[in-house]
């Protein structure tokens, strides 16, 4: 602990020195250490512009000996954030253990569509309810290594661990056929995991008919959640027919208790189609390759997604708000006993 404090003080001094050298003086007035990052609270001098500090992040990263530094603005406060050298994953099971005495969290997790995503930089657990007004559908975006697939697995783990099959049903479309094998035996699945485009189209055609039936009879339960991995590739191979089905489901599905979760590492209008992008107001955005991709993925200017640390470092964007979250890492097998009891 003493060595960590020494290193933090040294890094704080270097931050102040770099900013002073470039005539953008500021003081480091504290900080916060998370499992993945270190944040230094920054108080700029009255003469220092935020844009000056923002333009110096590359110099700060070099001085601190890290791959990237980013300027974070939260509720009027400024932070310089860097990745930890000894970063570790946030365990889903360990997070649940920390929350075992929190009756409110456990009650919320039993509500259909609610998932424990992970932890905010403030150390608070973050829950999201897919199918709600704020998150009617969810687009998960991130390049290779961002933790995109793990985020989807964590959502599924929450659904199948805490909600019964009579409360939530899942249609799982996985063209790669490898990332979700642990969920193949979950009683929540409407059908076996869908591995190909033709079967995916057939299942989505059935679901649009089911949506119409539910709307006519005003049925919303059980909730149906569709998870589509490699969404951009599915649309590319499935063509306009698949895009039309998906667009109908995202536009009208919520009233019938249907929610779509789409995962992609190609957040472009050309890959996803404008209609699909327009109907995913909520996004879970991991590291992307450029500021342009960050804009398309988040739907928000200067989101900073291109500077995220990867490996589960995400932004949840819902209802116009942006929340930083470290996605909890779910490990297969640890929750097997609980899953068997949810039928």
**Largest sheet geometry:** 10 strands, mixed
Q: Evaluate the radius of gyration.
A: 21 Å
User: In the CATH scheme, what's the topology name of the largest domain?
Assistant: Rossmann fold
Average pLDDT, rounded to a whole number, is 90
CATH architecture of the largest domain: 3-Layer(aba) Sandwich
Strand content: 15-25%
Looking at the structure, what is the overall shape? Answer: elongated
Query: Roughly what percent helix?
Result: 25-40%
Q: Which class of the largest domain in CATH terms? A: Alpha Beta
Secondary-structure element order, N to C: HEEHHEEEHHEEEHEHEHEHHEHEEH
- Structure summary, number of beta strands: 14
The end-to-end span amounts to 46 Å
What this model shows, in words?
By secondary structure, this protein is α/β, with parallel strands linked by helices. It folds into two domains: 2-83, Threonyl-tRNA Synthetase, Chain A, domain 2; 90-340, Rossmann fold (3-Layer(aba) Sandwich), CATH 3.40.50. It is 37% helix and 24% strand. The protein has helices spanning 2-21, 50-54, 57-64, 92-98, 103-109, 148-162, 197-217, 231-252, 269-272, 274-278, 291-298, 336-340, and strands spanning 26-33, 37-44, 70-74, 77-83, 90-91, 114-119, 125-129, 138-141, 168-173, 223-228, 258-264, 282-285, 313-318, 321-329. Strands 5, 6, 7, 8, 9, 10, 11, 12, 13 and 14 form a ten-stranded mixed sheet that branches. Strand 10, helix 8 (231-252) and strand 11 (258-264) form a beta-alpha-beta unit. Helix 1 (2-21) runs antiparallel to helix 3 and helix 7 (197-217) runs parallel beside helix 8 (231-252). The longest helix has 22 residues, at 231-252. The protein is elongated and about 65 Å long. The N and C termini lie far apart (46 Å). Residues 335-343 have low confidence and may be disordered.
